[in-house]
Amino acid sequence: MIENENQNLWSASFESIVNQRRSVRKFHPEDYDPAAVTESLRRAQLAPNSSNMQLWEFYRVSDSSSLKAMGEACLGQNTAMTAREMVVVVVRPDLWRQRAQANYDHVKNVHGDRPSFRGQSALDYYGKLMPLLYNNDVLGIRGFFKKMYVTFLGLKRPMVRQVTGTDVRIVVHKSAALAAQTFMLSMVAEGHDTCPVEGFDSVRVKKILQLPSRAEINMVITCGKRIPEGIYGDRFRVPSEWVVK
């Protein structure tokens, strides 16, 4: 009975969080607690991600000069110009060696010098398969041959077909988007609001953050507390039968 009551409470709480989350276009000029971002970024790092590679970075922008520059790079949108803080979600496929090694070392530490079959499989996964998947050249030559190889194997058995550099890039962005959504829902739980911004100059944002060339912007998220005029109308969604098949 107690377990059912807790389950109902969790369900109701999550329902409230999902319904409360809105893309806020104007934020309160004073009411804001940066600790909400700190806690929400901690939770965002717990989001599911492909192969636990965690090929993401989160950049907090909070000083006035950087916020002004970011607001201009976000095309002067109200949500960017009134944000108390911004979180820029960045994907880093170029860090695959570091993240694969971190996972390899973790598995090695857990299983010791005589790993079980499962442990050895995990070591091979990070020591052999991840380098094979993520080690791609700029011209896409390795990706072409990997694609031909899995296409041939796929004639006889099910195969993962997404093996090119472009495929890997998409996978990394999907993982980062899961972290971004976790962050935004957590901000609601902390009594704050956000808006995922699509309209921005990625070249200028990368320059502001001083990112390396191979880093990519996944999302710019503005943060603050809503004011009534910050919500542009009632929420609209197309009918469920259009999208649930």
Keywords:
245 residues; alpha+beta; NADH Oxidase; four-stranded antiparallel beta sheet; 10 helices; 4 strands; 52% helix; 11% strand
Main-sheet strand order equals 1-2-4-3
Tell me the number of strands: 4
Ranges where pLDDT stays below 50 over 5 or more residues in a row are none
The CATH superfamily of the domain at 24-94 and 178-230 is known as NADH Oxidase
CATH architecture of the domain at 24-94 and 178-230: 3-Layer(aba) Sandwich
- Calculate the terminal CA-CA distance, rounded to whole Å: 34 Å
CATH topology group of the domain at 24-94 and 178-230: NADH Oxidase
The largest sheet is: 4 strands, antiparallel
CATH class of the domain at 24-94 and 178-230: Alpha Beta
**What's the tally of helices?**
10
What is the overall shape? globular
Strand proportion: 5-15%
Q: pLDDT average, as an integer?
A: 96
Structural class category: alpha+beta
Output the helix-strand order: HHEHHEHHHHEHEH
Nearest-angstrom radius of gyration? 21 Å
What share of the residues lie within helices? 40-55%
What this model shows, in words?
It is a single chain. The chain is α+β, with helices and mostly antiparallel strands. The protein has a domain at 24-94 and 178-230: NADH Oxidase (3-Layer(aba) Sandwich), CATH 3.40.109. Helices cover 52% and strands 11% of the residues. The chain contains ten helices and four strands. The chain has helices at 2-20, 35-44, 64-73, 78-81, 96-111, 117-134, 141-153, 165-189, 202-209, 240-243; strands spanning 56-61, 85-91, 193-197, 216-224. A four-stranded antiparallel beta sheet has the order 1-2-4-3, sandwiched between helices. The longest helix is centred in the last third of the chain and has 25 residues, at 165-189. The protein is globular.
